[in-house]
Amino acid sequence: METRSHIAEFNAVVRLARKAQSVPHLRNPASLANFLYHRWYLGQPIPWPARTLPVQRRGPRSSGNLWRSWGGPEQEPAPAGGELARLQLACAPHTALHAITVTTRHADSWGVWWRLTSSAAGAPISAADATILFLRVADVDAVLPAVAELATAVRPFLSHARTPLTWNLASGISLVQNPPDDADFGRHRCNLIAQAVTANAQETQQDQVAAVLRAFEARGIDPTRPYVHDADRWDLCLVTA
Fold it and tell me: I need a surface site. Which of 19, 129, 138, 234 has the fewest CB within 10 A?
C-alpha cells in the first residue's frame, strides 16, 4: 500500500484546466468539470458507453447500464453518503467478469455488509470507477488486511491506472470515502476544482491552486488527504495514510 502527497496532483489538474480554458466551451464550470473528469481523473479522451454484465451472482440485479450485487448482514436503513467507502477497481474490459467474480468471492468471506456495482464489461477502455465495491466506513479498518489480500488476488485483472486524489492501494485499486450527497467521487472532486479555477480565471496558476485547496477545505476536505470527506468517520490508520 502506498501513501504520497497529493499537492502535485492539484498542480497538474490546474495546469490542465488552464490549458482547457483556451477552448471557449470549456470556460464554464460544468463543461470544464466534465472534461477534467474524463481526461484527467479517468485518463480517457471521451466518455464510453457502459453495458450490463451478463452474469448471475448472489442477489444480483441489472439496472440500466449498471450491474449490482450485494452481500453480508442486512443493514436497515442501508448505509449511504459519507457512511460508505468506495473500493474502486480499474477493471480491464476483457477481464471485468473475472475481477467481479474474485471481488465477490472475497467480499462474501468478510462477514460485513457490501454492495458492488459495475459498468466495466464491454467498455473499450478501462476506467478507475467502472467497478466499485461499497463498504461501510465503520467496517474498513477491520477488513483492511482482507482488502490487501483482495488487491493481490484481483490485480491481474486490473489496468495499471493510478487514480488521482485517492488512496492507491495498488495499481488499479484505490479507496475513497463516498461524498455526503452520494455523488460520484471523481465528478464531485472535479466539480470543486472546476468551480475554483473558473471563479479565479484571471489569477496565476499558483493562485488558482491555492483557490482549489481553499475550496476543498471549505467542504471539510483536507487537501493532503482528498480521499477522505469526513475524518471523524474514519479510523486513525486511514486518516493518517
Answer: 19
